[in-house]
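User: Let's play a game. I give you a shape written as tokens, and you guess the letters that built it. Ready? Here's round one.
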């Protein structure tokens, strides 16, 4: 089909637990492009954060290729790759959906002692007894992130981006990339 725009550089955003990584990984596989997970670039050993400028450099290097799917919400470095993106997908699911997914994912990771980025592990203590808990983070950040992404989606800051906002968890299964 002539005149059809293809997705080659896609950003997937949304609350923790929305399914960003799952969608981005599958979309990258179907499109034959690189999957880039911002959490992997951000987290260092012992859950240390990468400083903003170092993270920016990692993101620029990772997205230097022609095609990629980036998942993550690191708005402090979005200017380093959103400007080259052709599509943004916002997984805007209800808090009940993302909280359930985060709880289920966290329980599984704790039980399996799953190794994440930079050999970090979600422990029972960190996940359920700490103020740094992912559950506390999602509960406190869901509304804030929703407002931020709503403003970004309405802004003209990135006028050439195709924008898709999925508010139902079933819409991610509609065959994007087939």
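Assistant: Ready! My guess for every position:
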């Amino acid at each position: 089909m002539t005149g059809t725009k293809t997705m080659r550089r896609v950003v997937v955003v949304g609350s923790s637990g929305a399914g960003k990584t799952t969608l981005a990984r599958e979309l990258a596989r179907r499109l034959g492009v690189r999957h880039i997970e911002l959490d992997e670039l951000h987290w260092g050993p012992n859950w240390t954060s990468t400083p903003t400028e170092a993270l920016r450099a990692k993101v620029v290097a990772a997205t230097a290729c022609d095609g990629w799917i980036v998942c993550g919400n690191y708005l402090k470095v979005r200017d380093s790759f959103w400007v080259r993106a052709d599509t943004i997908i916002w997984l805007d699911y209800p808090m009940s959906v993302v909280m359930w997914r985060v709880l289920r994912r966290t329980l599984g990771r704790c039980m399996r002692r799953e190794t994440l980025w930079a050999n970090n592990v979600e422990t029972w203590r960190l996940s359920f007894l700490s103020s740094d808990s992912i559950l506390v983070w999602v509960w406190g950040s869901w509304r804030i992130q929703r407002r931020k992404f709503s403003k970004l989606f309405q802004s003209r800051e990135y006028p050439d981006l195709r924008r898709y906002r999925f508010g139902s968890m079933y819409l991610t299964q509609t065959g994007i990339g087939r």
